[in-house]
Every structure is written in C-alpha cells, then in structure tokens.
Amino acid sequence: MADFDSFFLFLAGLSGWVIKLHDDCQNIPSGYLIGNKVRHIKVLKGTGLPFSFMVISDTHNSNVGETLLRVAKKEGDVSFLIHVGDFVNGPGVWDHRFFLMEMVSEIRPPFPVFLVPGNHDIDYASKIKQKEQSVTQEVFDSLYGARKFDFIFNDCLFILSEVDPKNPVDYLNYLREVLSKKGSGRKYIFVFIHYPPDRIVTYKGGSPLPNEAEFFNIVESYKVTTCFFGHY
Questions:
Q1: Could you read off the pLDDT of 121-132 as tens digits, one per residue?
Q2: Which structural domain, as residue segments, surrounds residue 144?
C-alpha cells in the first residue's frame, strides 16, 4: 500500500507540474524583447564605437544555456544578444513555450535577443505527427518574427538568415539583396547562420551549409567582416 500511495503522490505531483507549466505558458507577457521584430531594433541605443553584443548557440533549453543567458544579463554594457540557432531541444510547441517562459518570466534579459532558426527549432521534416504541436515556419514567425532579419546599429550591418532545407538557395538570394542595398560603406558587417560551411568544420553527421562556394563568393565580394555559425 505504501508503494501504491507513493506512486499516486508522484502522479499527482507530476500532474500538478504539467498544469502549472500549462498555466505559465498561457500567461507569457506581451512586449518581451525575444525574436526578430522591428520594435526590438527601436529600443537599441546607438552610442557609436566601441560597443558589445553577445553571441551564443545550441543551448537546447539546457541548464548551460540558461546559465549563459544569466551571465549575459549581468554584463551591463551588452547592447543585444544573437542566438545562432537550436535554442530549443525540439520543434514542438511546448519546447518553444518553455523557452519563452524561461526567458520572459525568469531570465528577463534587459536587451533584445535576436534568433537564427536552427534545425531543432523548426519542424522542417514534419516529424511531429500532431500538427497542432508542430512548430512550422509559419508558427515560428508568429512566435518570434522574421526568419530572415537584418538591422543597422552604430553603422554596422547585422544579417541573420534561416537556411531552408527545402529551398537551399533562398538564403543566398537574401544575403545578396541585403548586402547590395545596405552593405556599402558600413564600418563592419556581420552574418549569422546556423549551419557552418564544410570548409570550416568536418561534419560527423547533419547537413553542412548548402551552396557554400557561392556563399563564400558573396561574403568575400561584399567584404563581410565576420560570420557566426552554430550547430555544435
């Protein structure tokens, strides 16, 4: 009987945790600075060079990721943070709700957090059978804003781009368009993409950056300062 009672209490506790998580996720405050939206750019206060921004990737809703984000919060001179993808462990609605709940209710970064979609963040392959639980590209847009995003801060150009496995040349077209229109005369140009080129990283699984030869042609011709990648 004691074992049965313990098991019942465990189930009751688990049910209570699920209910609390559901309630928390339904009450995520509006106005948070998480994602790629124009209003997030408007809160940035340009003071010229030098300035600081932080880059992280592949935190997968982990304790390590939470610690890194808390460290970023303590750095008072950080203007913004860019996450280069795989900020959740899987492309389900609850994974993303949990991420947003942690960010908005607990970590509460005082600066914008911009996001590059990774392969864990969007259900590109439609692996989740319950469609209402799948974070598609459209659902991602509704949660975080544009999957391709750029902004100018302190006369520096920042370009964040999704790599869509179903349309592997689209990111190249986007880079070329933004660089041709906004890249001229900038002090620095930074590009953020989840998948690293095979030239830089020897893959032991996963997909390398598609059409990387053309990618290098673009970033070299427009004199991009630095590219940031994730996936590891």
A1: 999 988 898 888
A2: 32-229
Pairing of strands 148-153, 156-161: antiparallel
DSSP 8-state symbol, 102: I
Secondary structure (DSSP) of 151-220: EEETTEEEEEE---TTSTTHHHHHHHHHHHHH-TT-SEEEEEESSPPTTTS--SSS-PPTTHHHHHHHHH
- Asked if the structure places residue 22 within a domain, the reply is no
Task: Tell me the per-residue pLDDT of 198-229, one tens digit each, with 9 for 90 and over.
Answer: 877 765 556 789 999 999 999 999 999 999 99
In three-state secondary structure terms, 226 is strand
What pLDDT is recorded for position 12? Answer: 41
Query: Is residue 9 included in any domain, yes or no?
Result: no
pTM reported for the whole predicted model:
0.85
What are the structure tokens assigned to 148, written together? 């391709």
Q: What's the domain count of the chain?
A: 1
Going by C-alpha positions, the residue among 99, 54, 87, 57 that lies closest to residue 72 is 54
- The verdict on residue 15 lying in a domain is no
Diameter of the chain by CA atoms? 76
Give the mean pLDDT of 25-33.
65
Task: Give the Å distances, CA to CA, from 223 to 26, 86, 200, 210, 218.
Answer: 45, 28, 18, 20, 8
